[in-house]
Design brief:
Layout: H1 3-16, E1 22-23, E2 29-30, E3 39-40, H2 62-121, H3 128-168
Antiparallel strand pairs: 1-2, 1-3
Helix pairs in contact: 2-3
Length: 169
């Protein structure tokens, strides 16, 4: 018997052997039951170095093999789609958080500009020139308010669109 045949026989014997594992009350694991309260663990979904015997029938045809391969390919595609969906959700949530930060910054920038204009307006003289200057500052404040509102509305629309996309996922 050559070395390759011996390896094949060893692999077949080890693949067909089924191991039972019991969990004992003291938290240890062993091959034999410890007592009447030992719990048999289901290890059917745990992988190994050598694949377990699949119990294929003797009359295994190409059609059954193709169907099994197709099933595993579908499972792999489903897993990839699930992972892609998870990553998309994470990106959307991150984008929403960033937009909310931008929204707060837009409010702060608008308020800072308005405060600066108000402070500047306090230096106006009580005459015609001062009144004209205050009127131009008031127009500038209005423009700053409109610009800030437009920016915030744009951010709110983006956040709303992302949240609706997130709900659809």
């Amino acid at each position: 018997m050559d070395g390759k045949s011996l390896i094949v026989i060893l692999i077949m014997v080890s693949a067909s052997a089924s191991a039972e594992v019991y969990k004992c009350a003291d938290g240890k694991y062993q091959a034999d039951p410890c007592d009447d309260q030992s719990e048999l663990l289901d290890l059917s979904n745990v992988g190994s170095v050598v694949a377990p015997s699949r119990g294929y029938p003797e009359s295994l045809t190409n059609e059954t093999i193709d169907a099994r391969q197709l099933g595993s390919a579908v499972n792999a595609r489903d897993k990839k789609a699930e992972i892609a969906q998870y990553l998309r959700k994470q990106k959307i949530e991150r984008d929403i958080r960033n937009l909310e930060k931008e929204r707060k910054k837009a409010f702060k920038d608008r308020d800072d500009k308005i405060d600066q204009l108000r402070t500047t307006g306090k230096r106006a003289n009580n005459n015609l020139a001062g009144a004209t200057w205050q009127q131009s500052l008031a127009q500038e404040m209005t423009a700053v308010m409109q610009q800030g509102s437009t920016e915030v509305e744009s951010i709110d629309r983006q956040i709303s669109a992302l949240r609706s996309e997130l709900k659809q996922l």
